[in-house]
What we know:
- This protein is an all-beta fold.
- The protein has strands at 2-7, 14-17, 20-24, 27-33, 35-42, 49-55, 60-63.
- The strands form two sheets. It has a four-stranded antiparallel sheet, with no helix packed on it. A three-stranded mixed sheet has the order 4-1-7, with no helix packed on it.
- The N and C termini lie far apart (26 Å).
Amino acid sequence: MFGSFVIEQPKECRVYLDSLYVADTPLRLDLVRVGQYQLTVTKSGYRDFVSQIEIEPVSYTHLTL
């Protein structure tokens, strides 16, 4: 089963799921396997944002940082 997540703001951040680089923001990622992930968002000059997220089946997880 799969879900999706979106990060629109802040822009120009690097996004990692379980320490693997995914893309830069803004980001919409579809077909993510359902489950828990460690999300890390980085941007030069700022403290890293690290959190556990859960992707649920057939739904969008919209994150605002």
